[in-house]
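Field log, afternoon session.

UNIT: design team B
ACTIVITY: writing a sequence onto a fixed backbone
BACKBONE:
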């Protein structure tokens, strides 16, 4: 009888582990976060240098603290006049600042990012941030209702 030659069994290929993919995803996420933080820092640093050159660093820090406070109390109504008066350096600039700020605020209302409220003609203008879904936040008092 002839001797039958048996082929050796193929070695099993090991499946790649999910760990390298997870590691790559973590590295990519860390790089994206690092780039975002760098851009925010770069914007803040540029503003800091500009305000320093104009000898207005107090305005820079007021702006930073105002953003923090307004961000923390985003559901509350804020008066447009009170919010902007901090940034007016010269009294002669007040009408220009109010007019341009009102135009910017109306654009934010049109985009659905801010709610606007004014009780009557020549009354103070109040605004607040809309929630992420675009629905009116808080008590439901929107731009068409009274406060």
């Amino acid at each position: 009888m002839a001797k039958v030659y048996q082929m050796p069994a193929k070695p099993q290929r090991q499946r790649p582990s999910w760990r390298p993919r997870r590691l790559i995803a973590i590295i990519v996420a860390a790089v994206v976060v690092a780039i975002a933080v760098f851009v925010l820092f770069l914007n803040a640093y540029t503003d800091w240098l500009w305000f320093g050159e104009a000898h207005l660093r107090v305005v820079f820090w007021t702006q930073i603290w105002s953003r923090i406070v307004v961000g923390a109390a985003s559901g509350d109504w804020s008066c447009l006049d009170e919010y902007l008066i901090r940034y007016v350096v010269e009294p002669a600039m007040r009408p220009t600042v109010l007019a341009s700020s009102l135009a910017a605020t109306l654009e934010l209302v049109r985009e659905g990012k801010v709610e606007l409220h004014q009780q009557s003609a020549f009354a103070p203008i109040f605004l607040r941030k809309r929630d992420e879904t675009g629905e009116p936040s808080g008590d439901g008092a929107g731009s068409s209702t009274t406060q």
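LOG NOTE: Residues 140-147 have pLDDT under 50 and may be disordered.
NEXT ACTIVITY: expression trials, pending approval
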